[in-house]
Amino acid sequence: MTDPTPATPATPATTPATPPAGDGINLASASAVLGASDDRFRHDYLEVRGLHVEFDGFVAVDSVDLTVVQGDLRFLIGPNGAGKTTIVDAITGLAKASGSVRFGGTELLGRKVHRVARAGVGRTFQTASVFEELTVLQNLDIAAGAARGPRELLRRRGSAPENVEAAMETIGLTHLRDVQAGILAHGQKQWLEIGMLLVQDARLLLLDEPVAGMSHAEREQTGLLLQRIGDQRTVVVVEHDMEFLRAFASSVTVLHMGSVLSEGTYAEVQADPRVQEVYLGTAGAARGARRSRPASGTAAAPALPAAPGVPTTTTTTEA
Amino acid sequence: MTALGLLTRPGRARTLAGFALAAVVLFAVAPVVLSDFRLNLLAKFLCLAMVAVGIGLAWGRGGMLTLGQGVFFGLGAYIMAMHLKLADAGPGGVPDFMTLYGTGEVPGWWEPLRSAPVALAAIVVVPCALAAILGYAVFTRRVRGAYFAILSQALAAAFAILLVGQQKVTGGTNGLNGFRSFFGYDLTDPVNKRMIFFVVAGVLLVMVAIVRQLMVSRFGELLVAVRDQENRVRFLGYDPALVKVVAYVVAAGMAAIGGALFVPVVGIISPADVGVVPSIAFLVGVAIGGRATLLGPVLGAVAVSWAQTSLSESFPSGWIYVQGALFIVVVAFLPGGLASLVGKLRRTPPQASPTPPPGPSGPPAAPRAAAVTGAATATATTAAPGAPTAPVPTVRAATGGHDD
After folding, report:
1. A247 touching chain B per CB within 8 A
2. Closest C-alpha among B277, B276, B279, B244 to residue B259
3. Are A189 and A36 in contact (CB under 8 A)?
């Protein structure tokens, strides 16, 4: 206040200094929270067999088989009502299901929700679901603390745990640590959710539309982070955004009416005539259903990317 | 001035200063200023405030609308009253009302309460055990919100009816009264009454300290998380039922101790003190004071009881309308209670003045969001003003009983 000379350079100095530190996702700190890619994850894989979910007689998921191995970044896509979220709900114990869901050799079906979580399964929700009245730090600290004993719980938190600090760096929210999560921007809330998965140390991460409503730059950063996590852990992403999918998916499972329609890399799935039929069926209906079914199988048909702004024909690597 | 300065600054110093101030008021000022009669009244209010402290934790922080704290208050009170009756009757003696209404024999389940240590332990253990069993059964079945409130209130009604019905062993509508001594001290002696006031005041301060610790601890944060997003907490690997049970048991224990101390202070405990109406009355003070704060419930409970006594002295029939109106006004216009008013007053001036915002948080989301998203995209601009609309409760049926 007395002497502006040191203060004035300080202000511009901090302003450009902050963006690198807080400019969204910081992949460099991800390893601090993810830890070494050691043998811990070697045997992790998700194996879904004959999954069947029924709501009052309506079959939402019908005998779905799904295998996702560690190091894979699997995307689940499909039209509305295909059963994507229901599968995630069934795996995490929210929806009652029959069949078998095994992760790392442990059967998950029939377990209570918090027991599934303790088996290393974490998830996010379509609408970011954070504890709005608690701060960013408190949100992450709670996510990190499921294994805490009573004595630790009854004490006040001293300094933030290391993994919480690292996660805050990773999701670029360190500068907002003491801000209530309820007033974060939409994208930041979704990052906070991913951060909570990280400190929770989930080995199987199920993300339900993690980039919905994000800007292009935010999607890009989120995708890179998910890839980084996917290198090490088992990640399943439910997503509608085809551009995001094409850029980051290492494999894709297409669901339709509660069943698996197709599975493979983006290119394989895109070339699958059945997938084209499903996606074109809806698109064709909207256009007046002029196109007959056989025609849709041809290469000339606008293929999978029904999302706006995506060149239809080729899958050249733009990203 | 320095004490006031300490009180306005947050942190450990302020807490200690606050407790010191409360102790001075209760232990030094109150006995000098108040007549014996008024001091005894204050002791009664402090007993009711103990119930309120627990409700503040369970309801304000935990979202459990405990409409049946009269059960735990009553259990504590009746156990204490039974012990006092047995002690008055002397070794092997029979309490007076039993010879009047009953067979003149002391029932077997009364007998253990002849021993003072057993009685003191039972005052805490019995209500807490009941709360633990009940809470576990209810919370694991995910009963919450209005359903939990109705359930707990029904329990209070049933408890009062049971007490009335078992006149031979509980004194029925008259309850238990006419205690002559309190652990060997003559209750007619004003000095001993004053001693009981000090005990009550000390216990209340300890309870406030316990609840404060619970609120600032990690458990307190978890409790708020459970209140706001029970399902989300579950997906993080916690069992929310256990978290709620702990808060519920603590609240029950505090209500029970309040009830136990209520007995020597007031000299009578009857079903009229434990039923539905008193259970709701416990809540009124908490709501008016500010349920989610530490001191709101205490001050609210004392203030409401005090106002009730002094107003009903001058307008015997008017108080009930005042109380009702106050409750409605607070719930409708100040959901956070009067404590939120204090918070608002405290927050407004610093924002108006050019102030260093607390910590590195600074002006929150908006500027950062703009930096993150680059151009002023929709997400960035809606960050601050759009926040209230955006957070739809996302997890299915995640709305807790918080707002009920």
Report:
1. no
2. B279
3. no
Note the helical H segments in A44-149: 84-91, 113-118, 136-143
C-beta atoms of A22 and B361 within 8 A: no
Locate the domains of chain B by residue range: 49-276
Q: What is the pTM of this model?
A: 0.81
User: In this complex, which of B218, B231, B387 lies closest to A141 when CB atoms are compared?
Assistant: B218
Q: Across the interface, do A146 and B238 touch by the CB < 8 Å criterion?
A: yes
Q: What ipTM was assigned to the predicted interfaces of this complex?
A: 0.79
pLDDT digits (tens, 9 = 90+) for A101-159: 999 888 999 999 999 999 999 999 988 789 999 999 999 999 999 889 999 999 998 88
**A185 to chain B: nearest residue by CA?**
B383
In this complex, the residue of B238, B383, B391 whose CB is nearest that of residue A185 is: B383
Q: Is B359 on the interface with A (CB under 8 A)?
A: yes
Which two structure tokens, joined as six digits, stand for B296?
A: 């709101």
> Which chain A residue has its CA at the smallest distance from B210's CA?
A154
Q: Which sequence spans correspond to the domains of chain A? A: 24-271, 273-307
The pLDDT of residue A75 is above 70: yes
Confidence of residue B27 (pLDDT cuts 50, 70, 90): very high
| Of B259, B122, B100, the residue nearest B167 (C-alpha) | B100
The superfamily in CATH containing domain A24-271 is P-loop containing nucleotide triphosphate hydrolases (3.40.50.300)
Q: Which helix (H) or strand (E) holds A52?
A: strand A45-55
Residues of B in contact with A157 (CB under 8 A): 218, 221
Of B225, B236, B390, the CB nearest to A134: B225
Question: Exposure pattern of B251-287 as b/e (b: 16+ CB <10 Å)?
Answer: bbbbbbbbbbbbbbbbbbbbbebbbbebbbbbbbbbb
Question: How far is B126 from B152, CA to CA, in rounded Å?
Answer: 17
Is A63:A88 a contact under the CB 8 Å cutoff? no
CB A51 within 8 Å of CB A61: yes
- The H or E element spanning position A227 is helix A216-232
Give B92-140 as a DSSP string.
Answer: T---HHHHHHS-S---TTTGGGGSHHHHHHHHHHHHHHHHHHHHHHHHH
State both tokens at A60. Answer: 């939402």
Residue B390 near chain A (CB below 8 Å): yes
Q: Of B205, B234, B208, B233, which is closest to residue B221 (Cα–Cα)?
A: B233
The whole-angstrom distance between A75's CA and the closest CA on chain B is 21
Of B238, B368, B382, the CB nearest to A22: B368
Cβ <8 Å between B218 and A142: yes
Mean pLDDT: which of A40-44, A185-189, B398-402 is highest?
A185-189
Give the mutation candidate from A18, A136, A186, A216 for the B interface (greatest B CB count, under 10 A).
Answer: A186
By C-alpha distance, the chain A residue nearest B225 is A131
Which tokens hold the place of A299? 């290469």
